[in-house]
Amino acid sequence: MTQQSTCPRPPAEPAAAAPGAPDHVRMGVGARFTLHPAADDFIPVILGALEAARAAAPEVTVRTDDVSTLLRGSEEQIGRFLLAAVDRAAELTPSGHVVATLALSRGCPGEVGCTLPTGELAHVAPVSLAATGRRAAAHWALYPLGTEDAMGPIEQAIAAAQAAGTWSGPENFATRLDGDLGEVLSTLLDTWTVVGRSVAHVAAHATVSLGSPTATPTSGPAVTRAGEPR
Amino acid sequence: MTQQSTCPRPPAEPAAAAPGAPDHVRMGVGARFTLHPAADDFIPVILGALEAARAAAPEVTVRTDDVSTLLRGSEEQIGRFLLAAVDRAAELTPSGHVVATLALSRGCPGEVGCTLPTGELAHVAPVSLAATGRRAAAHWALYPLGTEDAMGPIEQAIAAAQAAGTWSGPENFATRLDGDLGEVLSTLLDTWTVVGRSVAHVAAHATVSLGSPTATPTSGPAVTRAGEPR
Q: pLDDT at position A215, please?
């Protein structure tokens, strides 16, 4: 078994790493997400959400299977797709409770034939996502890969989330974010691209929850601890 | 901002890294998961699933908030908890469609005051999870942290999944697993502990789907490609 044989290779994009390709293609940028509407009749919610997202971000390449949806495009376009999808799903779900599971990836492995991006890493501008009026809470983890110093970039990402105002504190195995859906998604995307300036391969995972009947964390010391030194 | 100030510290477990502590405590082992029953009336499904899981794995420490549920315990106990929770959730969900979002973590950061485990890394025996008769499909990603060679351990994990018979092929940004729910969860846990023998900090994420109306992947080259050299 060679490394190449088990790494995903996108045969539909043979020019993925060609010279002159857009940064997001050269850097192997993409996302996977799954919408979880708390609804008996979940199919129209998911289809309606994907339709709204395609309209909002028509440049994104979308492939849905039975587990998740693959998105390929620029960070800005992926952000707009996700924002529209989750916003519409919340609108369409009678119970009002929707969760989105999100994985962002840039660099190798995962794309571009598992070859790390060559040349300078891209400096990506922050995304510009509108406020939705919907509150979202997320458990977020960011993984800088292929580097002995994982904590330095993680600290950089946490500082960026604190500056953005969405950081709500450390959890066990995750960091909590709170804010408008647009702010939370912006934090997820922008911290990932900021770390991507110095680390080629960066993955970020988040569980983004809207409309949970458990409005705020109430139990145990594992949740946000007010008064903890920041 | 110091590293310590932003890292999760479990104040309820002050003796976490004490000499003589069980391996799973010394290694900072734990999990976060979220159940997503496709149901208007989702609360009794989640509560019923957690109740069944607590009965199946009473040694696991459980803390639920509005985004996810934290599990602390041995790998075997965490596996039994997850198996019972997802199995009961599928039983209780009228639509039959349930997704579980799962994050496994061992090592630093995330626990034990962000200090990497000292001494030899634990060799954990494979978990022993019963078959449920329920088919599950997962998108799985494993992240060895703090090491320049991320691909070597990832290849090791993929080989272990292939040996277990649950490996269904590479996806973009993930690996697909298929099998009985018990087999899929066993693969997720056992690959994570196998890599944990050589890498202190290992995270694994999976979206585990049961009863999707999209029975098998049908579109595009991004899904399992039959005939691809392994």
A: 58
Is the model's pLDDT at A102 over the cut of 60? yes
Do B205 and A159 lie within an 8 Å CB cutoff? no
Contact A218/B65, CB-based, under 8 Å?
Answer: yes
C-alpha distances in Å from residue B199, one per residue of B3, B26, B27: 21, 14, 11
Contact B159 A37 (CB under 8 A): no
Q: pLDDT tens digits, residue range A158-170?
A: 999 999 999 999 9
What's the start-to-end Cα distance of chain A, in Å?
47
Residue B102 pLDDT grade (very low, low, confident, very high; cuts 50, 70, 90): very high
Structural domains of chain A, ranges and CATH numbers in brackets: 19-210 (3.30.70.930)
- Residue A216 near chain B (CB below 8 Å): yes
**A68 in B contact zone (CB under 8 Å):** yes
**d(C-alpha B63, C-alpha B70), whole Å:** 5
Q: Does A109 touch chain B (CB under 8 A)?
A: yes
CB atoms within 10 A of CB A145: 25
pLDDT score, position A117: 67
Check pLDDT > 60 for residue B219: no
Give CA–CA dist B45/B97, Å, rounded. 12
Distance of alpha carbon B114 from its chain centroid, rounded? Answer: 20
Of A11, A101, A147, the CB nearest to B101: A101
Integer Cα distance of B80 and A218 in angstroms? 26
Residue A17 has pLDDT above 90, yes or no: no
Inter-residue contact A195 to A209 (CB < 8 Å) = no
Taking each helix axis from N to C end, the angle separating A181-195 and A151-164, rounded to the nearest 10 degrees, works out to: 150
Within 8 A of B207 by CB-CB distance, chain A residues are 32, 34, 67-68, 101
Chain B CB within 8 Å of residue A62 CB: no
Q: What ipTM does the predicted assembly reach?
A: 0.86
Distance of residue B47 Cα from the nearest chain A Cα, in angstroms: 12
